[in-house]
Structure formats: C-alpha cells, structure tokens
Amino acid sequence: MDIPKMREEVTELEFESQKPGFWDDNLHASQTMQELNDLNSDLKELDEIRENLNTLNELVGEDGSGELDKEISALDKKIKKFEYKRYLSGKYDKKNAILAIHAGQGGTEAMDWVSMLYRMYMRYAEKKNWDFEVLDQTAGEEAGLKSVTVKVTGKDAYGLLKGEGGTHRLVRQSPFNADKLRQTSFALVEVYPEFEDVDLPDIEIKDDDLEWQFFRASSQGGQNVQKVSSAVRLTHKPTGIVVTAQTERYQEQNRKYALSLLRGKLWAKEQEEQAELKKGIQGEYTPATWGTQIRSYVLHPYKMIKDLRTQIETSDTDSVLDGNLDEFIEAELRLTKT
Q1: Which of 33, 160, 248, 336 has its CA 20 to 30 A from that of 83?
Q2: How far apart are the first and last CA of the chain?
Q3: Same-domain check for residues 293 and 250
C-alpha cells in the first residue's frame, strides 16, 4: 500500500471538508467524510502493524514461552488483511454497487433460482454490515423473481462484488414438478458502480434523449399501498436502454435512482465496446453476459459449488447459499490481479 499517497489523500480530504459550503451537498459531504474516516482507520492499523512488528523483532530469541508464536500468528492475520486490500485498488472499487439478477432459461425454476441468489447476496451484505435496498423487482408468475435490482451501500461494495457478474448455473431436483426431475437453471448477475454526475464526465445524458414514464408501483398492500404514480420507467432513446425504479413512495427519489441506474448501464455498455481494445490488459472489463458462465451450483445428485475461473470448489453448498462467499470472491480478486 502506498502510505505516503494515502497521507496526501487525507490532507486533501481534510482541506476539502473545511471549505465553506461543504455540507450544502449532504450526500457528497457524507461520502467524503466516510472516505476520510476509512483512510484514517487504515493508516492507524498500518501504524499499529509497524509498531507490533518492531516489538516482535526485539523479542525474537528472548521469549521461550511460546507467546511469541501466538503474537506472530496474530500479526500475520493483520498483514494478510492489508495484502487483501491491495486487490481493491480499482478506480471505482470503493463505490457502492448496483446489483441486478435476471432469470434465464428454466421457467419457474429459473425464477426461483433468482430469489435464491437474491437471498445469498443479501446474507453476504449482512455479514459485511452493508445496506441492501431493493430498487426494482418483478415477481415470477408462480414463484420466485423474474428480475431484481438492488443498491448495495458499504465500504468496497463494488470492488468485492464486481467479480460476481456473469451467468450462475443451478442443477438440482426440481421442487416444481411431481416427478422431482433433475433441472438445470440459469440466472444472469450484473454488477456496476453507483455513479454520480461528476464520476462520468465523458458520458453525457441529454434531457432530449430521455423518455420518462410514471406508473403506480407494485405493493404488498396495507398502509403502504401506492396512491400515486410514483414508480419510474426511463428510456434512453439513443441506446434503447430501459431502467425502472419503484423503491420509494416519492417520484423524485425514484427519478434519481433511475438516472443512477442509467449511468451504470451506459458505463457498462461503454466498457463492453472497449473490451476488444483492452484485450490482454490486466483488469479489463468482462461483460456480464449469458456467455460468461462463472459458477456452477450442483445440489443433485451430489453437492458441489465450483467457480469456473478460479477452480475454487466446495461441497458445503448450504454455507455458500447462506452468503459465505469470501473464499470465492477473494480467489477471483487475486486472479484478476496476477
């Protein structure tokens, strides 16, 4: 880690936070302060590691109780934590993430698979103490979800989740037919950063290129039944990209969410168009398409989850589907940085 550069960034952020009107844009100010706090926390831990290492060097050869080995082991874990952070050095890795899951081939089975993946990522977010907010979802006719889009808010959310983009394949006995036949289902996961206007100066979104539609958001009933057309459908006419947002009861908030979703889609499209030019370059963007199968989840006739990129596999399928994804995510991060 570039410690001098980190200290420079702290100085710059502290200077920015002291400018008049800093808190006029509450969202930007909050994000800046979060970034400043994260940097200070990292620097503090790095200073502690350096002090611990110096102390241990002085103790080598003097301690015969075995305590030294325990201290070394504890310090080794701290150092590996920061070695892992080296993999999260991408331009947008610290940003919040937009994650979308879509049902593929498999009918009702595939829609149930979407709901299983949705739960898996929600549990992963809970373990990371991230916020997990549904921006849009379409329920399946019989079960599950046709698609769901969520905003994941937390430290390094995009950096950790970006490798999950691609096709996820499920093999199991179908619970939706009497014969319990073996069924193969597919779901597509898309992940991109949550962008603000200032993040993408090269991507211009013109008002004339936007077509807005407003409709009544779906509801579970009760007191929260939508009384007005607060849900938003936004079409970007030059590309044909369509996004929807219906998480809030307020139309203006859904408009903001829709624009954020559109920025991410336009960025992903731009990255896809440049993929051929970047071919062979470390860290290139890989489009999350149906042709990019990344992981296979087999629940019958045996239990095995295998990542097709890193070759990491486990028979503890229940644990992974309950959100314990660290082994898979860390292996993928190492792969893309080697």
Answers
A1: 33
A2: 16
A3: no
281 lies in some domain: no
The CA distances from residue 322 to 115, 125, 156, 175, 317, in Å, are: 12, 11, 20, 19, 8
- Does the pLDDT at position 282 exceed 90? no
For 136-158, how does the pLDDT look when each residue is reduced to its tens digit (9 = 90+)? Answer: 998 888 889 999 999 999 888 99
- Extract the tokens encoding 192: 């991109």
Strand-pair partners of 103: 187
The two three-digit tokens of residue 144, written as one number: 């599950």
List pLDDT tens digits, range 173-198: 988 877 778 889 999 999 999 887 66
- As a residue count, the chain comes to 338
Tokens for 127, please give them: 């373990």
Residue 12: is its pLDDT beyond 90?
Answer: yes
Place of tokens 């779901």: 187
Range of the domain at 71: 3-85
> Nearest-5° angle of CA 99, CA 193, CA 87?
100
